[in-house]
Amino acid sequence: MSIYKHGLQLTPGGHFTDTYKQVLTEAGGFTKSVTGLTMLWNSLILGLGFAIGKIVISMLAAYAIVYFRFPLGTFFFWIIFSTLLLPLEVRILPSYEIVQGLGMANTYTGLIVPLIASATGTFYFRQFFKSVPDELVEAARIDGAGPLKFFIDILVPLSKTMIAAIFIIMFVFGWNQYLWPTLITTDESLFTLVRGMKQILQVWIGAQIPDTNQAMALAVLAMLPPVLIVVIFQSWFVKGLVESEK
Amino acid sequence: MAGIKLNTLRKIYAGNVEAVKGISIDIQDGEFIVLVGPSGCGKSTLLRMVAGLETITDGELFIGDRLVNNVEPADRDIAMVFQNYALYPHMSVYNNLAYGLKNRNIPKDEIEKRVRKAAEILEIGDFLDRKPRQLSGGQRQRVAMGRAIVREPAAFLFDEPLSNLDAKLRVQMRMEIKKLQKELGTTSLYVTHDQLEAMTLADRLVVLSGGEVEQIGSPIDVYEKPASTFVATFIGSPAMNLLPLTKQGSDWKLDNGATVDVKLNTDLSDLILGVRPEDLVIEELSEKFDTGLHTALTVNVVEPVGAESYVHGTIGEGSVDVVVRAPGKLHFEPGQILKVTAKPEKLHTFDTKTGKRIEVQGALEAA
Ligand SMILES: Nc1ncnc2c1ncn2[C@@H]1O[C@H](COP(=O)(O)OP(=O)(O)OP(=O)(O)O)[C@@H](O)[C@H]1O
Ligand SMILES: [Mg+2]
C-alpha cells in the first residue's frame, strides 16, 4: 500500500517473504485457480517450447535450403524470408482463426506453434551453414557420413554457439510474449507470468486497490529466468562471437 | 590397393563450361601420379571426378577392376587430402582420424589400433586429444594425412595439400609425403600447380592445359623431351628460352642471322627453337664445338641466386628475353656482350603453329 503514499521505494519493504510466498502459492485471478508457480511454469513452457521448437524447425529448414537442391529452392527461401517482414501482430488475426478452428485455443500447442512459424531462425542458420566450408562437407562425404549423420555429427556441434545465441534470443522473446497468449488463453490455468501481472493491476474496480506488491513480485519473478539464461549462456555466446572454430 | 583407369573422362559444368575434355590416364598400382598445370586447367575437376565429388559427364572411371562412375565417394575406396585440410573443427585429432572408420562400423579396437599406428608414422601421437585449432599448419597437414592413412584406401587423392604451408615446411612435407607413399605403396593422384613439387614427387607427370593432356611421362622425360612449347615453358625454372627459327636456303637461322647447325626432319620453314637456360653455356667456359647454336648475347639484367646467376639478355633487335644460367662466381655487367653456345642434342624444336615438338636428329655436319 505504501507505494501509493510514498511513491517508489528503493529498498524492499517489510513483507518480502510474505509477498513472494503469497504470490507463488496462493491462487489469484478471477477464478482463484492459478498460482504464481503455475504461471511461472507456463511461462517456462512457452519460453522453452518456443526456443527449442524454433531452433529445431529453423535448423532443419536451413539445412534443407542450403544442402539440398530442389526445384524452386531459392524461390521458397525468399518466400520464407519475406515473412520476416511480417511481425506476429500483422498475422495475428488469421493465426487466431486457424488455431481456434483447429480447436487448439487454450492448449500449449496453440500457444507455442503459431509463434514458431517465422523465418528469423531459418535465416540465421542459413547464413551460418553457408559459411561452413564446402571441403568439410566433402570430407564428410568421403568419410561415409550420409545427410543425417552429417547433420548430427558435424553441423549441429559446429552450430553450438549459434544455437546458444539463438536460444537466448528466442527464449527471452517467447517468455516476454504478451499479445498472443492474451488472445489464445482464456483459461487462467494457462496464464503466463507476463499475462498474470497485468491481471493483478487490472482490478482497479470500485474501492479495490491493486495488489501492487504482488504485481511487483511477479515482475521480479518474470525477469529472473531470462536474466539467468543470459548469464548462464553468455560465456558460450561470447565464445561464439570471439573465436571462430573454422 | 589398385590401379586407376581414366577412360576419356569429360566434365561439362552448368553453363557449358567444358573443364575436362576427354582425358585418359592409366595409373598403375602403387604409382605416384602428379597432375600439374596452370590455374583453371581442370586439375581439381579431374581429381574430384575420381573422388566422386563431381559427376562424370562422359567417359569411364575404373578403380581396380570396378567401374565407379556412379559409386558414392565413401564407397570408392579412396581417401582425399584437401588444400585447407578440412578437419572437423569440433572433434579431437583422434576423432578426426576415427570418424570415417566409425561410419564404416569398424570395431573399436581395430580403429584404436589403426589410429595409433598412423599417429606414430606421422608423429602426431602427442596431439591426439587436441582440437585442430590448437595445432600448427604443418601439424594439421599431418592430421589430414593421417585421416587418409587410417582408411587404408586403394588410392590417395591430394588436391594441392601443401599450398597453405610456408616454403620451408612445404619442402619438408613434400619429402615426407613421398617417403610415406613409397612405404605404404598406395596409388596416389596428386594435384599441384607448382612444377617443382610435381617434378620431385611424381613417378609420372601429367601436364594439363585447358582441360587436355599435354604430356604424360616421367619427370625427366617431360623435362628433357617436352612434347610442346607449353610443357617446355611450364616445366623448369627459369623457363626454357623460345626463339623463332627460319629456314633460309639449306640453313636454319635465328632472327639475328646466326646459323643454327641442326638436322631436322620437317617440311616446315618456320619453327620455334627451344633451349634451356642451363644448356646455354658461355663459350669461354665450354669445350669447343662447331655444331648447334652459337650466338652473341647482350646482357641486360643479372639475377644472382648464390650458386648460380641467371643472366637475362637479348640476341639482337626485337629479341625476346633470353636467360642463361651462369656460375654464381662470375661477374657480369649490363651491356656486356657474351658469346653463348648450345650443343645440338640440347636443342628443342617445335612447330610454330601447333606448338608440337619436332625431334632434333643431330648436327648437320656430323650427319
Ligand atoms: N562448379 C563449377 N561450375 C562451373 N565451372 C567450374 C566449376 N568448377 C570449376 N569450373 C571451371 O572449370 C575449369 C577448371 O577448374 P578447376 O577447379 O578444375 O581448375 P584447377 O586446375 O584446379 O585450377 P587451380 O589451380 O586454380 O585450382 C575452370 O575454368 C573453372 O572456372
Ligand atoms: Mg584446383
Give your account of this protein's structure.
The complex is a heterodimer of chains A (246) and B (367). Chain A is mainly alpha-helical. Chain A contains 13 helices and no strands. The model of chain A has no long low-confidence stretch (mean pLDDT 79). In chain B, strands 11, 12, 13, 15, 16, 17, 18, 19, 20, 21 and 22 form an 11-stranded antiparallel sheet that branches. Chain B has a 6-stranded mixed sheet with strand order 6-7-8-3-9-10, with helices on both faces. A 4-stranded antiparallel sheet of chain B has the order 2-1-4-5, covered by helices on one side. Chain B is elongated. The mean pLDDT of chain B is 93. At the A-B interface, helix 8 and helix 9 of A face strand 6 and helix 2 of B. The structure holds adenosine-5'-triphosphate and magnesium ion (MG). Adenosine-5'-triphosphate binds next to strand 2 and helix 1 of chain B.
Poorly predicted segments of chain B: none
Strand content range of chain A? under 5%
CATH C-level class of chain A is: Mainly Alpha
CATH superfamily of the largest domain in chain B, called what?
P-loop containing nucleotide triphosphate hydrolases
How many domains comprise the coordinates of chain A? 1
**Please, how many helices of chain A?**
13
Count of domain modules of chain B: 2
Helix content of chain B: 10-25%
Secondary structure tally: strands of chain A: 0
- Under the CATH scheme, the architecture of chain A is Orthogonal Bundle
User: Biggest interface and which pair forms it?
Assistant: A-B, 20 and 25 residues
